[in-house]
Please model this.
Amino acid sequence: MATKVHLSETCDGGHGSDPGGDPGGARPQPPLPDVITNVATTHAAVPDSAMTTPIHQALVQRELLPAEHYLDSGYPSVALVAGALRDFGVELVSPLLADTSPQARADAGFDRVSFDIDFDARQARCPQDKISSSGSSCTQRGTDAIVIKFDTTTCAPCPVRGQCTTAKRAGRQLTVPPRELHQAQLAAHSAQHSTDTGGPGTPSGPAPKPPCTKPSPRPAHVMPATAAWPKPTSSTCSPPSPST
Model:
């Protein structure tokens, strides 16, 4: 039977305490090692996303729940991003949060976060203060989204059209994810671009955010108990497993 293992480990590089009681607190200590915090095994056919909540529940029981959880792309969904923050106080960091528009990939021009989105009216306001002409619901890769279009007569005379769209005969079009995911993308974008500090990116996801200076808000029933608090961070992946 083919199986899959889900490994979670600390990855914040916290520093050790000084049990000797250095009065000035100036004695440098080596960083704490990254350690495995949870191991779960499932049938290979079980999708990774089915394990996200059980992993968080297991980490709660061990009092090792992180403030930030870096995940391979198979673990999160729109509902899990919102649910993890609401139910556990955990911020999921994943390629799911990446803006995949051509402008974002090229890191040039006006990407999706440059537009103000009115989800109730299904409208967008562009950086030139123009309002979109239409908005309609759609489903992409199993996720609900909104397609927002700007009229050709609005975009054609725009002085910064070249920074916004390469379409020759049509106006700019945006595909916007649900409100919760869009807000998570805005937060990730703001954290990434507000400072140039922080560690290097990871192969499976966006660059880590700058170090926190205080705990993230979390529900009262979820209490942190890790030595690295206030910046506990962990990652979860499912490496290939041989068939048995």
Remarks:
- Residues 107-180 form one domain.
- The beta strands are 3-10, 36-43, 68-71, 91-93, 116-118, 123-125, 134-140, 143-149, 173-176, 233-237.
